[in-house]
Amino acid sequence: MTTKHVYSINNEEANIIIRFFLRCLGIFSIVLAIVSILLVFSQVLIALSSFMIFLIVGIVLLALSEVIRLLHEINQKLELVHRQEEREKTIQPLSINKMKNCIKIEDAKQILAMFQRRKEDVLQITPTPLVDYYFVETKEAVYLVELGDFLPFIVPKERWQPQLLRHFELTFAT
């Protein structure tokens, strides 16, 4: 029984291979131009025309490999921008009341998963002025959850920063 090995090439590898191939063809063409002028030196017209053709083809191929390299770099930067835009997309958090603020989809998923493991129902997720900090309201209490590491965790009330305490008092004052 024989097994087939399938090798797939990603975009970056394909770009590297194509650039290398074009660069080699360009250099080979320029070398061929020099060799052709030396070999056919007795017939000046043929020597000059073949030299010019091979030289121009070589330069065009080298330029084409550089254009591919530049386009690949632009594509990588655009992909980075698209990934950042995806991270910045937001959703309305779960809430019984109308929510005033929005949170990121990934942050909401992490928080909801954490409270599902704790077997608590999330009523509302409220962003704070600090990045990666959210107030999470459940039936039992209001928690301060910090994201940013690998897993979200609840920050004990004694470790809340003064700015967060003020925000909590303004947001959840009855």
What report would you give on this structure?
It is rod-shaped, with a radius of gyration of 31 Å. Mean pLDDT is 77; it is low at 90-100. It has helices at residues 11-39, 44-88, 105-117, 162-172, and strands at 90-91, 103-104, 122-127, 133-138, 142-146, 153-155. Strand 5 (142-146) and strand 6 form a beta hairpin. Strands 3-4-5-6 form a four-stranded antiparallel beta sheet, covered by helices on one side. 13% of the residues are buried. Helices cover 56% and strands 14% of the residues. With 174 residues, it is α+β, with helices and mostly antiparallel strands.
Describe this structure in a few short sentences:
The protein has 174 residues and is of the alpha+beta class. Helices cover 56% and strands 14% of the residues.
List the helices and strands and how they pair.
Blueprint: H1 11-39, H2 44-88, E1 90-91, E2 103-104, H3 105-117, E3 122-127, E4 133-138, E5 142-146, E6 153-155, H4 162-172
Antiparallel strand pairs: 1-2, 3-4, 4-5, 5-6
The arrangement of helices and strands along the chain is HHEEHEEEEH
Distinct helical segment count:
4
The overall strand count is 6
Envelope shape: rod-shaped
Alpha-beta content class:
alpha+beta
Q: Proportion of β residues?
A: 5-15%
Quote the average pLDDT. 77
Query: What is the spatial order of strands in the main beta sheet?
Result: 3-4-5-6
Radius of gyration, CA atoms, in whole angstroms: 31 Å
Low-pLDDT stretches are 90-100
* Helicity, as a percent range: 55-70%
Straight-line distance between termini: 74 Å
Described by strand count, sense and barrel closure, the largest sheet is: 4 strands, antiparallel
